[in-house]
Amino acid sequence: MIKSICCIGAGYVGGPTMAVIALKNPHIKVTVVDVNQERINAWNAQNLDKLPVYEPGLAEIIAQMRNVNLFFSTQVNEAIQQAEMIFISVNTPTKTYGLGKGMAADLKYVELCARQIASVATTNKIVVEKSTLPVRTASTIKSILKQSQNNVQFEILSNPEFLAEGTAINDLLNPDRVLIGGDYHTPEGKNAIAALSEIYKNWVTTDKIITTNIWSSELSKLTANAFLAQRISSINAMSAICEATEANIDEVAFAIGKDSRIGDKFLKASVGFGGSCFQKDILNLVYIAQTFGLNEVADYWQQVISMNNYQKSRFARKIVQEMFNTVSGKKIVLLGWAFKKDTNDSRESAAIDIANYLIEEQAELHIYDPKVTAQQIFTDLEKSTTIPQEELATKIKIYNHPDTIFQQAHAIVIVTEWDQFKTFNYTNIKKQMQQPAFIFDGRNILNPSEITQIGFHYIGIGK
Ligand code: UDX
Ligand code: UDX
Ligand code: ADP
């Protein structure tokens, strides 16, 4: 039975996943390591508001398990040495240079981990891929680990994480399934699969723990994300048709969702999907397909991303068009920056593209998000607009609190579906704004007839 786990990478996946494993396995010592000292300090912060990841329910588990059987540290080598099982949970961003630039996954962090494990380990280890990786990455890891001089046996498993941010703790506690890919034809492979299953069996029923070969497991993760993203692009494509006709996307989604073959989840039309996974994983899938000469397959999946880009720019253009073709010098309130509600993560958030477009149109942006820090918003915008922060600060204003943000505004643009945006007092807000007052609801969270009744000019998605 496993007694000691190490997780390399203390990010949005590694942090919450290890917190739940520690919670459910009090007999296992779980050490989460990262090269980023600042991040580890934040995980160890006394003030739980300072944790690097915001997830409902996470702070409570950290408070309960930290320094009991859950540890955060920068001592990577020591943790590797002590552990019987090592999870690799480092980032695998899209490559920004060289071969496969803009498409392939950048595996340099994964490779560095494998090399470090190979050089440090002095006892046998089970190495678990947690990060989403291209198919056959396990063989790369295997060949690196084989170079170990210390006469150590490594067994590789793929155990992709399916949690969604904002609901990570609930997803981890009640997973639809746990997927373990491994070498089930060999006794060593079987033992490794059994060892990892034992950990999950402390809270997940056996029927939900699925075993496949390692390549199926790797490909299933990419496939799941591609299918989920495809549903959003499909409903967003229909939202454009709805806007051109008198159909209403929420009614269409409701009607088709009743077909049990289709199902009603993940059919919410929006300003476009964001997050660190969907775009990256599909680009990765497209690259893999191209590598195998499967160009039709590559084109098919590429279209999911093209549709998402189209949706974001269509929404941004609509704002300008509706406001009499100019937003120059107009005060526009952007509600939300995170890529979805209940997270402080803004990676690939549609908000970034919308803001970028509006800045180019010379709008005066006033931004509020309940969890994303002002510094993060500046960093995101600096990267996307290439305007230095000092200059950006003259064009945008970021608020910690929405109290005064609406004064003299011309328009409100809802980009993230935070619950609090639904219950703002829009009657009062309207009185503070310039007339005609516009609301662009990029998430369809408000009731159009109520908002129109108040006197707003309301523009939603697909209606
Ligand atoms: C379809 C719709 O299902 C039905 O709701 C609508 O009213 C009419 O069109 P139909 O074409 O009769 O019905 O059969 P369906 O079961 O949908 O199959 C269509 C085709 O898809 C068949 O060739 C079937 O073999 C194929 N199919 C279906 C697959 O290849 N894989 C599947 O998983 C399901
Ligand atoms: C996704 C997968 O859901 C998860 O299983 C995987 O492990 C990681 O990638 P995540 O990106 O955290 O999770 O969040 P998700 O809930 O999938 O939302 C992704 C984006 O799609 C968000 O921007 C969200 O707002 C958007 N979305 C989601 C829609 O626009 N409409 C929907 O109906 C659902
Ligand atoms: P994810 O959303 O996949 O969890 P994050 O970027 O939030 O991605 O987290 C990945 C973490 O992995 C980062 O904190 C990064 O510092 C860490 N990391 C990357 N490479 C290494 C490495 N070789 N050793 C330790 N930590 C690493």
TrEMBL record:
<feature type="domain" description="UDP-glucose/GDP-mannose dehydrogenase C-terminal">
    <location>
        <begin position="333"/>
        <end position="448"/>
    </location>
</feature>
<dbReference type="InterPro" id="IPR036220">
    <property type="entry name" value="UDP-Glc/GDP-Man_DH_C_sf"/>
</dbReference>
<comment type="pathway">
    <text>Nucleotide-sugar biosynthesis; UDP-alpha-D-glucuronate biosynthesis; UDP-alpha-D-glucuronate from UDP-alpha-D-glucose: step 1/1.</text>
</comment>
<dbReference type="InterPro" id="IPR008927">
    <property type="entry name" value="6-PGluconate_DH-like_C_sf"/>
</dbReference>
<dbReference type="InterPro" id="IPR036291">
    <property type="entry name" value="NAD(P)-bd_dom_sf"/>
</dbReference>
<dbReference type="InterPro" id="IPR014027">
    <property type="entry name" value="UDP-Glc/GDP-Man_DH_C"/>
</dbReference>
<dbReference type="Pfam" id="PF03721">
    <property type="entry name" value="UDPG_MGDP_dh_N"/>
</dbReference>
<dbReference type="Pfam" id="PF03720">
    <property type="entry name" value="UDPG_MGDP_dh_C"/>
</dbReference>
<dbReference type="Pfam" id="PF00984">
    <property type="entry name" value="UDPG_MGDP_dh"/>
</dbReference>
<keyword id="KW-0520">NAD</keyword>
<keyword id="KW-0560">Oxidoreductase</keyword>
<dbReference type="InterPro" id="IPR014026">
    <property type="entry name" value="UDP-Glc/GDP-Man_DH_dimer"/>
</dbReference>
<protein>
    <recommendedName>
        <fullName>UDP-glucose 6-dehydrogenase</fullName>
        <ecNumber>1.1.1.22</ecNumber>
    </recommendedName>
</protein>
<comment type="similarity">
    <text>Belongs to the UDP-glucose/GDP-mannose dehydrogenase family.</text>
</comment>
<dbReference type="InterPro" id="IPR017476">
    <property type="entry name" value="UDP-Glc/GDP-Man"/>
</dbReference>
<dbReference type="InterPro" id="IPR001732">
    <property type="entry name" value="UDP-Glc/GDP-Man_DH_N"/>
</dbReference>
<dbReference type="InterPro" id="IPR028356">
    <property type="entry name" value="UDPglc_DH_euk"/>
</dbReference>
